[in-house]
Write a structure and sequence with these properties.
Layout (H helix, E strand, L loop, with lengths): L7 H9 L4 E5 L10 H8 L6 E5 L5 H9 L5 E3 L14 H12 L2 E4 L18 H10 L4 E2 L16 H12 L2 H16 L2
Parallel strand pairs: 1-2, 2-3, 3-4, 4-5
Helix pairs in contact: 3-4
Length: about 190
C-alpha cells in the first residue's frame, strides 16, 4: 500500500525491488476512498503496475463505470469479496463479469472463507461465483493463498482443504496451469 503522496523516486525504488502493483483498501476502516482510486491508478502507470482492490463486491454495480475507465490492470480481491454472498445473477456480480470480459480486470480466486456463510470444505455459497468466473475468463483469474490467513475468524482454514477446493473450481489441468502459473507470470511479469 502506498499513499497519494508517494514520490516518483520511491515508486521507482519499489519497482526495482520487484513490486508490481498497489493495493487499495476500500472496506470498513478503509485506508483509501473511492476518490483515491483514479489518481492512484494513474500514479503507477509509468511503471506498468496494476491496482488491487480490497472492497465489498456489492459496490461493483455502482462503481463499474469508474473501474472500466481506469488505465492499466485492475485486480479484484477474493472472488469479489461480496461481504454477504450473492448469486451469480446479482447485479454487482454481473458487473464484475463485464469488467473481467473487458480484458483489463483480473480476479483473485482466493479467500472464500472471508465471506462464506456456509463454510468449508466447499464454500457452497461462494463456489458458484468462482465457477462462473473461471468459466467466463480463465485467462483473467489468479490465485493467492492468503496464508497465514490473518483475517480468518475462529479456526484458521486448512490450506490443504483450500487447495483441494480451488482445484475443483478450476476444473481441468490446462485451466489449473493457466490460473496457477501462466496468468501470474503475465500479471506480475515473472
Amino acid at each position: 500500500m502506498i499513499g497519494r503522496d508517494t514520490s516518483f523516486d520511491a515508486l521507482n525504488a519499489l519497482h526495482a525491488g520487484g513490486i508490481r502493483g498497489i493495493r487499495l483498501h476500500l472496506l470498513i476502516g478503509k485506508l483509501h476512498t473511492w476518490d483515491d482510486v483514479p489518481a492512484m491508478a494513474a500514479q503507477v502507470q509509468h511503471l506498468g503496475w496494476h491496482i488491487e482492490l480490497q472492497m465489498d463486491g456489492r459496490d461493483l454495480a455502482e462503481r463499474e463505470a469508474l473501474l472500466a475507465a481506469l488505465p492499466g490492470q485492475v485486480v479484484i480481491d477474493h472472488i469479489g469479496k461480496f461481504r454477504e454472498p450473492v448469486a451469480p445473477d446479482h447485479p454487482s456480480f454481473r458487473a464484475l463479469l463485464r469488467l473481467v470480459e473487458r480484458g483489463n480486470c483480473w480476479v483473485k480466486i482466493s479467500g472464500a472463507y472471508e465471506t462464506s456463510k456456509s463454510g468449508p470444505p466447499d464454500y457452497a455459497d461462494v463456489a458458484p461465483l468462482a465457477h462462473t468466473l473461471v468459466a467466463a475468463a480463465p485467462e483473467r483469474m489468479v490465485w493467492a493463498s492468503n496464508w497465514p490467513h490473518p483475517s480468518a475468524h475462529g479456526a484458521r482454514p486448512d490450506d490443504a482443504t483450500l487447495m483441494q477446493t480451488l482445484l475443483t473450481w478450476m476444473g481441468d489441468a490446462a485451466t489449473r496451469r493457466r490460473i496457477l502459473v501462466d496468468n501470474p507470470a503475465t500479471l506480475y511479469g515473472f
